[in-house]
Amino acid sequence: MLPNRMQLSSETEEQLKKLKAYTGITPNIAARIAFFRSIESGFYYVADDKKIDGTLILDKATWLGDTALLTEMLLKSKYKSFDPKQAAKAWAAHVHDGISALRNHRSLKSFVNSI
């Protein structure tokens, strides 16, 4: 369902990079956690014209790792009519939504305690 190469918005990327600087958690791991936090919160992506303009373009396996199948199944069940490009935008929107609750942690201990 998702394309092989995916990216986030530059704003989300910056938040992931700052989180890595403070906690050491890599952007792909933080993005996975943020995605699932967003799903748990009930966030629903409504198609918009927001650009996915980040410079960190990684393959699906790197972004999603062992959660790839589950992530795609969740997106497919939540957004049944989406094509791969729309699904990638929905994934990026969920990461953006989920990172808002995680971005302000200044240590790994604080981060872990919050999840």
Short summary:
The chain is mainly alpha-helical.
Assembly state of the chains shown = single chain
Per CATH, what is the topology? Arc Repressor Mutant
At CATH level 2, the architecture is: Orthogonal Bundle
How helical, in percent, are the residues? 55-70%
Give the helix tally. Answer: 6
Radius of gyration over alpha carbons?
13 Å
Structural class: mainly alpha
Distance between the termini: 28 Å
- SSE ordering: EHHEHHHH
Percent range for β-strand residues: under 5%
Shape: globular
Query: Briefly, what CATH class?
Result: Mainly Alpha
Task: Please give the number of β-strands.
Answer: 2
Number of domains: 1
CATH 4th-level superfamily: DNA sulphur modification protein DndE
Task: Chart the SSEs and their pairings.
Layout: E1 5-6, H1 10-23, H2 27-41, E2 58-59, H3 60-64, H4 68-78, H5 84-99, H6 108-114
Antiparallel strand pairs: 1-2
Helix pairs in contact: 1-2, 1-5, 2-5
